[in-house]
User: Fold Phosphoribosylaminoimidazole-succinocarboxamide synthase from Streptomyces colonosanans.
Amino acid sequence: MSGFVEKPEPVQVPGLVHLHTGKVRELYQNEAGDLVMVASDRMSAFDWVLPTEIPDKGRILTQLSLWWFDRLADLVPSHVLSTELPPGAPADWAGRTLVCKSLRMVPVECVARGYLTGSGLAEYRTSRTVCGLALPEGLVDGSELPAPIFTPATKAAVGEHDENVSYEEVAHQVGAETAAQLRQVTLAVYGRARDIARERGIILADTKFEFGYDGDTLILADEVLTPDSSRFWPADQWEPGRPQPSFDKQFVRNWLTSPASGWDRASEQPPPPLPSEVVEGTRAKYVEAYERLTGVSWS
Assistant:
């Protein structure tokens, strides 16, 4: 059992129809048929959406995504139409709202990995493979892979695990041509982003993308290359053979799995509220990732 500890009531705005509450985002549709995505400050961990928010998180995710969309536009267009607030929207939506094309979404999480960690490491330890792809012997937690790999997953509902699947399964699900395009674009975008991040002292260990189609055109959707969807490691602290320091929700995960939280992950009980020092530490990591990548001070 997992999901929302406390599921929020969506804000109602004249002219917008609320479609969906996700882990982080509220999704609306305007009268023109475009989607309006609002990134909240909600935090998720271990398939739970926690009761404590991280101040500024939604704005950081939105502004960082926009920064990346600009730098990837020659590889794949994004779904963003506008950043203007819809009429009647609350002031708090400023900086966290995107008006986007309504796309025919591909039901696949497109994951690129350049380093071995997380669920990829767990599979490798069992079978020397990740998503069915054979890898060399001798890799450890944090090892750089010989070349980046495309390791797709099925997109799960809130509270459910994304499941890693083979490329062949994706081809069966969406067709060989679409699968090949997803793999090519995913690895191209990862390669561009990895190089940009590396110049700024950050290792992009892995990341996930979502794509949809506007007619026959593949479009990059949702968010992109944020601490929510990516593992960012400080390059000067990279040391294979152990978990790496990271610019993401690791503060939250570490506290939840520590004796201090008093929470048993294996139980069906929801996680407790986060203490202020964990909230502040997590916010600081999101801000640092934004500032190091963009070179712009967060205010």
Remarks:
- The helical segments are 57-72, 118-127, 167-174, 176-199, 250-256, 276-294.
- The longest strand covers residues 202-214.
- The domain at 16-100 is CATH 3.30.200.20 (Phosphorylase Kinase; domain 1).
